[in-house]
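U., I forgot to send this yesterday:
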Amino acid sequence: MRFKTQFNGYSLAFSPFMEGRLAVTTSQNFGIIGNGQQYVLDMTPAGLVEVARFETADGLYDCCWSEENENILVSASGDGSVKVWDVAGPPQMNPLRSFEEHTHEVYAVHWNQVRRDVFLSASWDDTVKLWSLSGPPASMRTFAEHAYCVYAAVWSPQHADIFATASGDCTLKVWDVRQQHSTLTIPAHEYEILTCDWNKYNDCVIATGSVDKSVKLWDIRNPQRELAVMSGHQYAVRRVKCSPHAENIVYSASYDMSLAMWDWKVAASGAGDPMVGGGRTILSLPWALTAAAWWTGWWEAAGGTRWYTCGPTPATRSPSDTRARKPVSVTPSEPCTVHPAPCTLQRRLLLARPLLTLDRLGKMPIQSNFCDGT
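Result:
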């Protein structure tokens, strides 16, 4: 089955209530700049059919379904908001809510599958927020221990109060909402961690994927060393998912446009090749060529240099973070000597491109220092 979206796809989520229904988030211009659209599609004998579509002023990066109501859907937006949609409601009623507490892009959302009444949002403002639709229109709690962008926040599939986060500060953290601080911090990779997921059969095992091109498995009872390391991707690992059907299987999607299937227990034992299957199935070649051409043209049109204004230092950042409001020059290859992190547009460029700067993929996010402009 195929369905052509108007913008570039970023994430999809299958409904927990309807077997053939899925939600797809899309962003204009690969999520770098432009609008977004949230699709709801049904699988029918005639193919994928559009049930609903919601328009947003900025790109959408992720979505998740409510575990309480089959018609409620949540989207993560590039404008820093969390959108809540009612698929069964008329257009004038949507979005039902727009939570606007994050100060930078919201990159991931995840609904609690055990409690079923709360969900998480992870943002480039370095924080994770806990939400409920049954209470006041404000977050229930903010988790602010990461030192850089939070790219993923995933609830444990077996414990109602436990979740894990993956961050650009190269750490994997485990949290218990009943505790004041995170319960575990693992320096899991040498480069930014873009994704994590819990094993569905072992509640102590977590998979991570990183800009260092590797997938790792961790036992949180013994975090000093990884259980397994799977290397084979040519570029950053964008998403990992643990199989719901087999304890030993993990899937990964990469910026090298490939999808891989791994047996992490084979990797842990060293008995053979852990890659069960893999193929270049993530992006089509025309998409990649178009993206590469667009990237080149954009920077040529900009003369190789853009001027931005640094944003104010968020309250969640450490006192040693010296970012201030001042104009700086940002280029795709020259680092800013003042500020310690990529600016907002640079982050979008780094995460959006499949073939945009492959020679720097795995180097720029950590080894370069771009201004945090907005």
